[in-house]
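Changelog excerpt: complex records now keep ligands as SMILES alongside chain sequences, and the structure block spans every component. Example after the change:
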Amino acid sequence: MIFDKKYWSDRWINEQTGWDIGEISPALKYYIDQLQDKEIGILIPGCGNGYEAEYLWSQGFHNTYVIDIAEKAVMNLKARVSTDFHSNIILGDFFDHQENYDLILEQTFFCTLPPNDRPSYVEKMHALLNTGGRLVGLLFSIPLYKDHPPFGGTKEDYIPIFNPYFEVISMEISDKSIKPRLGNEYFFEMEKRMEN
Ligand SMILES: C[S@@+](CC[C@H](N)C(=O)[O-])C[C@H]1O[C@@H](n2cnc3c(N)ncnc32)[C@H](O)[C@@H]1O
């Protein structure tokens, strides 16, 4: 099966959005609340309903951008936020996106990709970040499905893929996951390596 624009658009249209927690992820809120510089460029790829972006915008992080491949996801977010934010809400494919950011937030986007596509994700994240840029967020810490998303894994799977492109600062089981995911997610922070 191919997990392309049609696959994701159909899931949105058919309301098969079981990943959606209905609010900002508590672990990401905790991280965002520690950010001092409101000018930094932030991207949230595969943003879905974009609760994190909505929160960032409300807190004055107006260089926040989101991208999703499904029109309905983008429309849902636009319907909830101020029109000032609309030009930062991009309908498109993450892998075609060309920009540079200081921070990229990950929340159930990596797990949409079959394991064979993970190196492309890592390379693209590296290309999108500025010098010293960080990739921060949540990754499942357990194996999940083999033939459809969400695809899971463990540190042992993830670190060798990220390591050539990112210094993994931390990747530990999150104590701020929502109840159904508690104990099954890492919170991680990585910094772009310059030698690549
Ligand atoms: C599992 S959902 C997670 C949504 C959101 N991050 C959340 O946690 O609620 C994955 C999202 O990624 C989007 N997506 C999948 N492939 C994409 C791609 N190549 N580029 C941009 N968005 C993509 C889907 O449309 C979907 O909204």
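Helices lie at 5-13, 26-32, 51-58, 71-80, 118-128, 155-162. The mean pLDDT is 97.
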